[in-house]
C-alpha cells in the first residue's frame, strides 16, 4: 500500500513512524513533512491547497491512501476532492469537518441530538452578545465560531474580560473566524481528550489522553497548541468511556449521517468530566498534537488497516489494542513561543536523548548548513513510556536533559495531575 501523509508536525512524525512499521506499506510519501518524517518517507513540496495537484500526485505515485494530519486541508475540502477522484482518504469531508470548523455548527448538533454540553447562544453582532453576557455574568466562555489556530477561545473570569473578548472577535482579531461568536456557559471539572476512529457508521474508541495547553508550569500563562500530554487519561474509566460513547459519540455519528455528512476519520472529543459524567467542550476532526504522539507510542499492532478501514468502511470488524504502559510527551518549544518564536537556533543531542530509550518526534525543525535548527514554535516532542505516568515522566525528562538546545524551553511538570494521583495510591 502506498500512502501519502499530509502535514509537518510532531503529530505527523508520530503517524509516519507508526505507518512505517506496517508490513502492508509500500512507499510512504509526505507533504511537506519535516526532518524527522524524512527518516520514514519521501518528502514532497506538493501544494496541498491545490487539490487538483494532490489528485495528480496520487495518480502519478499510485497512492492507495491519503492520511490528512491537520484540520485546515479538511475544512478546505481536500477529502472531498480525493473521494471524487476515487482515492481513499483518512479524514472527513468539508461538511463533516464543520464539527471543528464551526463551533456553532457543533453546538446546534448537540442541541438537536441532546448531547451534554454547556448552554450557549450564537451571535453575529457585538451588542446582542454583550447583552447576553451581562445577563449571564462571569465566568463565561467566548468563542470565535471558525478556525482560529487554537486562539479563538477566551475563558473569561470577569465580565470585563468577556466584553473585551467579544470586541476582539467582531473587530477582526481572528479574521473571518470571528464574524460569528458563540457564548458558552463555563464548565467545571477535569478535562480529558477522547479519540474515536470513524468510518461514517462505526465509531471505534481509540484512546484517551490529557494535554497541557498553558505555556507555564502549574498550567499558567497563555494558551498554546499544547506543551505536553500523557495517555491514558486516568479520569477516563471504562464506565466513563462507555457513557461518552452512548451520550456523545454515537448521537454525533447518527446526527452527522442524518444531515448527509457521515463522519470519517478521527473524531477527537474535548471533554469536561464532573460528577454527572462527560460534557462535550469541543470536537476536532483530526488527531491532537501532541496527544497523537502518546497514542502512537501505546498502540500495539498495525495502524494502516485501521486508517484504511476508517476511509473505506469496515471498522466494525477491527479492534485496536493498547499497551498497558503509560506514555508521556514533553514539548520543547523555541524561545518566546507562543509569541513569535526565535528560529534558527542549533539543536544537538537527539541521539543521546534517544539512547535513554525515549523517542524524539520532530515538529518545527529544519536542516540548515548541515545542522539541525529550530524552525517553528513547537520544535521537539520528547516521548517516553513506563509502567506508570510517574516513571514515563522521569524517563521523558531524562531524555530532555540529554538535549543540547540553549534556544529552547519546556515545562517541567507535564503529567502533574496523574503523578499526584499516583502518589496517593
Ligand atoms: P479550545 O480552543 O476550544 O480547545 O478551548 C481551549 C480551552 O478552553 C479548552 O481546552 C478548555 O480548557 C477551555 N474551555 C473551552 N470551553 C470551555 C467551557 N465551556 N468551560 C470551561 N472551559 C472551557
Ligand atoms: N493539543 C490540542 C490540539 O491538538 O488541539
What does this structure look like?
By secondary structure, the protein is α+β, with helices and mostly antiparallel strands. The chain is 32% helix and 28% strand. Strands 10, 11, 14, 15, 16, 19, 20, 23 and 24 form a nine-stranded antiparallel sheet that branches. Strands 3-2-1-4-5 form a five-stranded parallel sheet. A hairpin with a 3-residue loop joins strand 12 and strand 13. The model has no long low-confidence stretch (mean pLDDT 95). The site of glycine has 7 residues, from loops.
Blueprint of the fold:
Layout: E1 3-7, H1 10-19, E2 28-32, E3 42-43, H2 51-60, E4 65-68, H3 72-75, H4 78-84, E5 89-90, H5 98-101, H6 103-113, E6 120-123, H7 126-136, E7 140-144, E8 153-156, H8 159-170, E9 181-185, E10 190-199, E11 203-211, E12 214-216, E13 220-223, E14 228-231, H9 238-258, E15 264-274, E16 277-284, H10 291-298, E17 299-300, H11 304-312, E18 321-322, E19 326-334, H12 350-355, E20 359-362, E21 365-368, E22 371-374, E23 378-386, H13 389-400, E24 408-409, H14 416-424
Helix pairs in contact: 1-10, 6-9, 7-8
Bound molecules: adenosine monophosphate and glycine.
Adenosine monophosphate binds next to strand 8 and strand 16.
Amino acid at each position: 500500500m502506498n500512502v501519502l501523509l499530509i502535514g509537518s508536525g510532531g503529530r505527523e512524525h508520530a503517524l509516519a513512524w507508526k505507518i512505517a512499521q506496517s508490513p502492508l506499506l509500500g512507499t510512504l510519501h509526505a507533504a511537506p513533512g519535516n526532518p524527522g518524517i524524512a527518516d520514514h518517507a519521501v518528502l514532497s513540496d506538493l501544494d496541498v491547497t491545490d487539490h487538483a495537484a494532490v489528485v495528480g500526485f496520487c495518480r502519478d505515485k499510485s497512492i492507495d491512501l491519503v492520511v490528512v494530519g491537520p484540520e485546515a486541508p479538511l475544512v478546505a475540502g481536500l477529502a472531498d476532492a480525493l473521494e471524487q477522484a476515487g482515492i481513499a482518504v483518512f479524514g472527513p469531508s468539508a461538511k463533516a469537518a464543520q464539527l471543528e470548523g464551526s463551533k456553532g455548527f457543533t453546538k446546534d448538533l448537540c442541541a438537536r441530538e441532546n448531547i451534554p454540553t454547556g448552554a450557549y447562544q450564537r451571535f453575529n453582532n457585538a451588542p446582542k452578545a454583550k447583552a447576553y453576557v451581562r445577563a449571564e455574568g462571569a465566568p463565561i466562555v467566548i468563542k470565535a465560531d471558525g478556525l482560529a489556530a487554537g486562539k479563538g477561545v477566551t475563558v473569561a473570569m470577569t465580565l470585563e474580560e468577556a466584553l473585551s473578548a467579544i470586541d476582539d472577535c467582531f473587530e477582526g482579531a481572528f479574521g473571518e473566524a470571528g464574524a460569528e461568536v458563540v457564548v458558552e456557559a463555563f464548565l467545571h471539572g477535569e478535562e480529558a481528550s477522547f479519540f474515536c476512529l470513524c468510518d461514517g457508521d462505526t465509531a471505534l474508541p481509540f484512546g484517551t489522553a490529557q494535554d497541557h495547553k498553558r505555556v507555564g508550569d502549574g498550567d499558567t500563562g497563555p494558551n498554546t497548541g499544547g506543551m505536553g500530554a500523557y495517555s491514558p487519561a486516568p479520569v477516563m474509566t471504562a464506565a466513563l468511556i462507555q457513557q461518552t460513547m452512548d451520550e456523545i459519540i454515537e448521537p454525533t455519528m447518527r446526527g452527522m449521517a442524518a444531515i448527509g455528512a457521515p463522519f470519517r476519520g478521527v473524531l477527537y472529543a474535548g471533554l469536561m468530566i464532573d460528577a454527572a459524567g462527560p460534557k462535550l467542550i469541543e470536537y476536532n476532526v483530526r488527531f491532537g498534537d501532541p496527544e497523537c504522539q502518546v497514542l502512537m507510542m501505546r498502540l500495539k499492532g498495525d495502524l494502516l488497516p485501521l486508517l484504511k478501514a476508517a476511509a473505506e468502511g469496515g471498522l466494525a470488524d477491527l479492534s485496536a489494542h493498547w499497551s498497558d504502559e503509560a506514555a508521556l510527551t514533553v514539548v520543547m518549544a523555541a524561545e518566546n513561543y507562543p509569541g513569535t518564536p526565535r528560529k534558527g537556533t542549533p539543536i544537538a543531542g537527539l541521539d543521546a536523548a534517544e539512547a535513554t530509550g525515549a523517542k524524539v518526534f520532530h515538529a518545527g525543525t529544519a536542516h540548515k548548513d548541515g545542522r539541525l535548527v529550530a524552525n517553528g514554535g513547537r520544535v521537539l516532542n520528547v516521548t517516553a513510556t513506563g509502567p506508570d505516568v510517574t516513571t514515563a515522566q522521569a524517563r521523558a525528562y531524562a531524555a530532555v536533559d540529554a538535549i543540547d538546545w540553549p534556544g529552547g524551553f519546556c515545562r517541567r511538570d507535564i503529567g502533574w495531575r496523574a503523578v499526584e494521583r499516583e502518589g496517593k495510591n
